[in-house]
Each structure stands twice: as structure tokens, then as C-alpha cells.
Amino acid sequence: MDDMSLKDYLAQGGKLTSPANVPPRYRAELLKLMATFVDSELAGAAGFADTINDGPGIKERIAAAKIVLEKTDNADKVLKIMGDFGADEARYANHHPWTSRLDRDADIGTRRVEQDMRLAVFNYPLQGWGDAVVMNLLMGQAVGVQLEEFTKVSYQPLAEAFREIAPVEARHAELAFEGMQRLNAEGLGANLQSSVDYWWPRVAASFGIGNPDRFEALRAMGLRHTPNAELKSAWEERAGATLGQLGLRTA
Amino acid sequence: MARFHDLKVTDIHRTIRDAVVLTLEPDDPAAFDFIQGQYLTFRHDFDGEELRRSYSICSGKQEGKLQVGIKRVDGGAFSNFANEELKVGDTLQAMQPMGGFHTPLDPANAKNYLGFAGGSGITPVLSIVKTTLATEPQSTFTLVYANRGVATIMFREELEDLKNRYLGRLSVIHVLEQDAQEIDLFTGMVTEEKCAALFRAWIDVESVDTAFICGPEPMMLGIAKALRDHGLNDAQIKFELFASAQPGRLKSKVVSKQAGKQANQAEVAITLDGSTQTIMTAKDMTILDAARQNAMDAPFACTAGVCSTCRCRVIEGEVEMVANHALEDYEVEKGYVLSCQSFPVTDRVVVDYDQ
To answer: How far apart are CA A139 and CA A172, in angstroms?
Structure first.
């Protein structure tokens, strides 16, 4: 009974607990998953930092600064776990200019560009305060759905980090919702729908295309549980309902 | 980045025929201020090949000493070395404590903890038991400890002493695979069904705040399933995977018949942390090994072409990367390679770890 392959163990819901007991392919996929999260958080925080000064009032600027701080902190939590695998955390945090963006009308679909693993959506530039808040709401809710998936990952230290991160990210989406309510109340919401139209398909693309073979491989390792399409429709439902509350419609 | 420190072996205590407890005195005590349940990763050279193995700390925080328990495994290079060759006064090298097999402790807590250990899986659980009971005077601990037989129970006497010291707060249930006991339930393997039976008669699972499990994989799965079926959620169940999953056997060395021939030699210039060394090396040796054999502290971890920690950039010449599970196509196009998988092809190769 003592002899059980790690493959069977993982397929049956077992958890791995340290770099010393992860098999090579698992390690690669786990590191990729972590790099995707870290890069997206760092790029997201870096992009949002520039909009702090665009906040129409001090409350908005405090909220934006808090989001930048906490997203950076969330990146750090996961980067520490990559560090357990030998990654050079200091070098990693600086290995790419996180503020870099493509043109607003670049069309990269779900592809990643340059040398980092950020989700494609984080390659597009924000245009002013209202646009930043819309992006933050839509992506915040997408991250919420994605984190529900990733708190189940079979690498226990990462699942624990994501359990700490999830409520913080959920609060960011709430702050964005409150920010949009305030813009509406102050009559500044005229351009919000065009921002929704811009960001909706790009956030939707962050759920990925969903290669079934790859998904199965990841599911066998306990790194994924729910197919991309299901996650995406869960987000569409939630985000659609939230937009409805703000008098906006999905793109 | 992880770094190795020297630790002096100050005591070797044989707990059972096949297991020792090492007491270690680190050169840098601050670096070894561990949390209960953490492990140390040792490195040791066996016939020129470095092997890394992790062992859990078994001492409690309050004991003021650093101890690891090492059970001998058939064919396990490090565990045999520790059990048979290591002497008091020897020096070992280990990275500072790592691992998240713990929950935060608070003297104000009045919690009920449940631990499951299989064989040498007791080591981190013992550290948790001792630290928790000493830190939280109002908390209780129930330990289910699975072994083949009485003779293989590591720390049997120590657990008895702890039971007496923490009367009413620590209970230990020994489940033995082969030796018969007064209570039938305590004989056999710790399976999902066995847990369910224990939860009916012996353990109030509903009052459990956190459960710790360390042992062989099938045992952990069965226990976790039983715990979930009885209402615990994932955040309440802490796993520590048994060390058996680590590759510990030395592989036989491949000796190249062509070694020494000029055609098999390459000149490799390696830049690391701002300085460059030029090395004559065999073409059947990886860039990473060439760097490390020349005392360069080149980064590496998995040496399986996977974690990308050993990534470097080829500036001049050509290498052959035999496996790549980490780098994307665009990185390869830019000249990045995994140095642990890359062999020189041209007579001169220039690589840079800093780019």
C-alpha cells in the first residue's frame, strides 16, 4: 500500500507540499502558473500606479494607491513560493519593465508578448480614470472567478497563498464598483460604456482558449479543475449582473 | 535565493534500529530559527555527485535545540550515510528551514488539533505536538500514529513522556499494521474506513480545528477523504508529503571513452554575477556542470530542464539543449537555454547568466 505513484496520488486529489516532492513536469506547469499570476499582478499594479493621480478625489486616490500596494504584495506572496523553487526573487521582480504596454488598438488575442507571462489583457494601456476603474471592475471579477479555481491547486503552499489573496482581490473589485457608482452619481459616467465595450472582450480572452489536452494534463496534476469555458461563463454572468446594477450593458 | 550553511553534529541518538535523531549546531543560529513542522534540505557529496535530501525537524520550539530524525531507507544514499557513517563532530550542510506545515500559534487559543503520522512521518508532527502543547496551554492534541509494529515506533518513549507531562491534553493512538493490540480497531492500516471508525468511537472529529497529516501517499489520501466527509474543509487539513517521493538514489556515472580528445573539448566562457571564467570542458558535460565544477555558484534547482532557474543566454557559439520543459519558443529564439540541459557543440561557446 505504501507504493503509490505521485501521478495516482495527484489524480486522486493528493497535495504536494514542497519543491522536493514535485515531479519535473508538474514543477514546470506550477512555475508557469505562478509566473502568470506574479507577472499579471506586477503588470496590473504598475499600469494602475500611473492612474492614481487621475483619481477625481482623495478617496479615489487612496483606493487606487491601496490597490497598487496590495496587488504588489499579492505578487510578492507568490513570488516567494517561486523562490522556494530556486527562482531569484530580486532579479525576477525586476526582469521586465512592468509598466510597458502595447498600443490601445493592438490586437494580440490571448497571446503573451515580450518576455513575461502576464495575461494578454495586461498589455493594453489604460486611458484615464474611468477607463481604469472599468478595467479594474471587469478584471477584478475575472480574477475572483480564477482564484476560486486556483485555491484548489494541488500545491498546498500556493493554495494557501491564494486563499489569503482571494478576499483582497475581491475587495479591489468592490472598490472599482464603488468608484463607478461615484462617477455615475457625479455625472462623470458618460464614457463608461465605451470602456466596457473596449475591455469586455479583452478580459474575456484572459480565460484562455482552452486546449482540452492541456487541460486534461493539468487536471491530472491537480493544477486545474474547471474548464476555461465554464470559468468564463461564470464571470460573464457575474460581471453582466454587476454592470446591470450600474446601468451598463455587456459588450 | 536559498543558501547552504554549516551545521555541526553534536549528538546522534538511535531511536529504533533503523533511525537516528541528529542534534545539530548551526554556524548561524539566527538562520535556523525554525517554525514547528518545517524541514531542512541537506546536501552531501557522494563520489563526486551532489545529492539533496530533505528531513523534517523533530524538536519543539521550546527545547532550544535543532534536531532532525532520519529513518534508513533501502538504497537511500543519504539516510544510509546518516545512519551508518555520520559521527559526532562531523559537519553537514543544509539550507535554512523551509515549509508551511504549521498554523499560527497563540497562547490564548483553546483549540483541538488532530495529527496523523505514518512511520517516519512522525518527525514534523512531533515538532508540532511539542510546540503546540507548550505554547497553547488550553489546546489539546490527538495523535494517530501508524507503524508496522512496536519495534518500528520512532519516539515511543518520548511520546509516553509527553503524555505524562501534558496529562489530559495529549492522547496518542498507536495503530500497528502487524502487531495485535488489545483493541482490534488499533490493528491494521490507517485507511479511510479506519478513520471513520476512529471518528465514531475515539475521536470527536467535529471539535477538531486543524488536522495535520504526514505519511505515505495512500494513507494521506484516505485520511483526508475521511476528514472531508466529516466536515473539515481544505483549509483545515494540512498535508506534509512523506519524503519517499524524493529521488534519493545515486545514478551510476557515465564515463566517456572520448574524454581527453581534443575533438571532444570545448572552451566555454561563462559570465555569472558580473565576472567571466573561461573553462576547458568536455563536450559531453553540460554548461551548468562545467560552471559548478569550476567553483562557479551557477544557479540551478531541478537539473531536469524544468524550473528555468538555470537559464542562461548563449552569446557566441552553439549548444545543444536536450530537454526543455520551461522555456517558451520566443525565449529560445532569443538565445536562452537551460544550462543544465545544454552541451557545447562548437569548440568555443560564450554564455551569460546575467542576461
So the answer is: 10
